[in-house]
Task: inverse folding
């Protein structure tokens, strides 16, 4: 489309404003973590790294971080197995109800988290509680895995659709068993998609707050739950600022690695 | 390496098993699907089913115990209580406002990244949009809490004009939700604009259309399904949210907050309230299916 000079300039300004809207709040979080003042008034009276060292020794935040890492690893492991299995079924087989299967995979993330949360909460309460299994880290992992399956599924299914099954057939023609063909041919083809999917699943679990609220037992506090609980406490404000800043910096990592691993996979969307 | 060398008998078994799997695709499919489908249908759909059934139960007002007797009292209350109706309308209004704002902001950004920026820069710009998508939800809300706080950036910026920021409340909620879901709108619009064939635009120009006319008659109709696809996220994520409202919403109540505040005291009522966003989202999806947007999700 031929755009006039004015149109181009207007678009540049519009896009520039859009990018500013995206980035300025995140930059503010970084700057605010260096604010010596406890209040969030702007502009900050100076800059200090004092709160960073205070935050590094905060036992509550550290404990919550470890719970988040454990929950993320557990959920990612389950999601990797289940998501990959469905991806192979959907991409390599035709069967009745295939579209329904893809729909059910997406559902846990398409419905509001609070609905998923109370559904799991009441199910755990009525089924697991009589068996003596209370809410705890285990139920958090189960809840997170349910909506992490979709990102693994998306990544692996995208890769499988792009790689023809003829490679596997060739391996088997050459005498490889099904397992051998999988280990030597199929697995290397999907490996990076698995890594990207796993990484995004971990990031998703790490960030989840609503489902966690309803599936965590007393005493199980993930990092988002910790931040949420401390956000409105003036006493904790400086430490929350630092934890938030750390999370902004860390969020660059998964997207960068996932982009490097697989340019073609569904890093962009949660569905 | 005597330990990993399988015995001849063992190798034979593996070979037979592999052969069987190869010959019977149905068996292979069953093995692939059993575990994930058990997980998703029994655990997830089962939980949802229990939740929706419990919407028809009631709570004894004296003992706070759930009474498992079928009744439509909760839904009756839902439709007749003015507060509920207000909150539902407000929630849908917020979700629509967020969607419209996202679309309005997304368009120039996506148009720039897809068609105006130098081709070399385009992938980088897309990454620049993606990165904040993966920044923590809570941190993004927190950022807006800082901006909108008393004496925060918003007040500081508006002070020279003699104004003050909106503070915490309904406008803050709409603003923050728009910020949260903006990337979900920019990305599909960017993809659609990128795939727009250049010769269509040339043809339009050859036929004498100016940029504005080309935009209205060629670009917009072709990009609209993607806007609709993006709106599925902006709409449904806004409708179910209650954390953002709690952090920057002041006294604002949305449907998510109602569900949340009823969970402890009256789970059946919470379940009935929870069916509202689900029903609205399903209706929204059905309405949007006409545009063909769901195929581009």
Result:
């Amino acid at each position: 489309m031929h755009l006039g000079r004015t149109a181009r300039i207007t678009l540049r300004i519009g896009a520039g404003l859009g990018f500013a809207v995206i980035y300025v709040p995140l930059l503010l979080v970084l700057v605010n973590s260096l604010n010596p003042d406890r209040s969030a008034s702007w502009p900050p009276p100076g800059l200090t790294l004092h709160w960073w060292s205070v935050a590094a020794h905060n036992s509550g935040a550290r404990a919550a971080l470890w719970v988040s890492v454990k929950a993320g690893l557990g959920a990612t492991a389950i999601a990797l197995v289940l998501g990959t299995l469905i991806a192979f079924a959907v991409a390599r087989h035709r069967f009745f109800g295939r579209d329904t299967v893809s729909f059910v995979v997406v559902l846990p993330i398409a419905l509001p988290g609070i609905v998923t949360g109370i559904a799991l909460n009441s199910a755990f309460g009525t089924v697991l509680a009589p068996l003596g299994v209370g809410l705890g880290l285990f139920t958090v992992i189960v809840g997170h895995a349910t909506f992490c399956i979709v990102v693994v599924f998306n990544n692996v299914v995208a890769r499988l659709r792009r790689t023809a099954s003829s490679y596997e057939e060739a391996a088997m023609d050459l005498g490889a068993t099904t397992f051998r063909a999988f280990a030597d041919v199929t697995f290397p083809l999907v490996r990076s998609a698995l890594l990207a999917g796993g990484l995004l699943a971990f990031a998703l679990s790490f960030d989840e707050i609503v489902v966690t609220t309803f599936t965590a037992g007393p005493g199980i506090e993930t990092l988002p739950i910790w931040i949420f609980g401390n956000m409105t406490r003036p006493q904790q404000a400086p430490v929350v600022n630092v934890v938030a800043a750390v999370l902004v910096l860390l969020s660059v990592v998964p997207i960068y690695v996932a982009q490097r691993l697989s340019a073609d996979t569904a890093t962009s969307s949660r569905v | 390496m005597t330990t990993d060398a399988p015995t001849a008998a063992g190798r034979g078994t593996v070979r037979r098993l592999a052969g069987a799997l190869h010959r019977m695709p149905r068996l292979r499919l069953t093995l692939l699907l059993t575990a994930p489908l058990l997980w998703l249908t029994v655990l997830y759909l089962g939980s949802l089913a229990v939740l929706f059934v419990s919407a028809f139960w009631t709570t004894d007002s004296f003992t706070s115990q759930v009474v498992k007797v079928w009744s439509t009292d909760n839904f009756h209350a839902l439709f007749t209580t003015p507060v509920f109706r207000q909150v539902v309308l407000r929630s849908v209004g917020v979700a629509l406002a967020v969607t419209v704002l996202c679309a309005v902001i997304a368009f120039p950004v996506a148009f720039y990244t897809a068609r105006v920026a130098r081709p070399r820069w385009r992938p980088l710009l897309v990454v620049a949009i993606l990165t904040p998508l993966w920044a923590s939800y809570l941190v993004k809300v927190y950022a807006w809490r800082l901006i909108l706080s008393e004496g925060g950036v918003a007040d500081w910026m508006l002070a020279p004009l003699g104004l003050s920021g909106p503070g915490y409340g309904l406008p803050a909620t709409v603003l923050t939700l728009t910020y949260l879901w903006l990337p979900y709108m920019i990305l599909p619009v960017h993809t659609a604009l990128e795939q727009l064939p250049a010769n269509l635009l040339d043809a339009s120009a050859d036929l004498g259309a100016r940029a504005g006319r080309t935009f209205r008659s060629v670009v917009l109709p072709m990009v609209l399904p993607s806007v609709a696809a993006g709106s599925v996220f902006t709409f449904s994520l806004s409708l179910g949210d209650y954390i953002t409202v709690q952090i920057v919403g002041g006294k604002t109540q949305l449907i998510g907050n109602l569900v949340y505040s009823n969970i402890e005291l009256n789970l059946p009522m919470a379940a009935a309230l929870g069916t509202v966003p689900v029903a609205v989202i399903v209706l929204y999806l059905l309405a949007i299916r006409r545009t063909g947007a769901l195929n581009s999700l």
Notes: The mean pLDDT of chain B is 86. The CA atoms of residues 122 and 128 of chain B lie 10 Å apart. The longest strand of chain B covers residues 58-59. The beta strands of chain B are 58-59, 66-67.
